[in-house]
Amino acid sequence: MEILVIDDDEIFCRLLVEIIEDWGAGTNWTTNGLAGYEMMSKHAYDLCIIDVRMPLILGTELADAMREDFPEVKVIFCRNPSPPTACCGRSSWRSENRSVSDDS
C-alpha cells in the first residue's frame, strides 16, 4: 500500500510517516497541499491522509479535487492539534480553560 501524508506541520508528518512505515506501507509526505496534488499526479497512491486546515488550500478543497481526478484514491482527514495560541490567542484560550484552582 502506498500512502501520501499532507499536513502543513512537518513534525506531525514525519511522526505519522514513521508510524505508517512501521506497519509496512510505503509513504511520501509534503507540507504543501498544492505539492501534494502534484505528487498524486505523478505516483499511484492508495490512500491520502490530509490535514483539514492548511495554508494555500483547505484539505477539504484538496480532497474534492483529488476525488474528481483520482477517484480510486481513498482519503482520510486528520486535524493536527495546534497549540492554543496558534488558533485563538493566548488570553482567550486561558480564560476559557482555567482550572478551578485558577479561580481562587
SSE class: alpha/beta
Number of helices: 5
Distance between the termini: 55 Å
The average pLDDT score comes to: 81
Shape: globular
Number of domains: 1
CATH topology: Rossmann fold
Beta-strand residue percentage: 15-25%
CATH class: Alpha Beta
Please name the fourth-level CATH homologous superfamily. Response regulator
Q: What does the main sheet amount to?
A: 4 strands, parallel
Determine Rg (CA atoms, Å). Answer: 17 Å
Total DSSP E strands: 4
CATH architecture, by name, is: 3-Layer(aba) Sandwich
The largest sheet has its strands arranged as 2-1-3-4
User: What is the helix fraction of residues, given as a range?
Assistant: 40-55%
Low-confidence stretches: 84-104
What is the string of SSEs from the N terminus onward? EHEHEHEHH
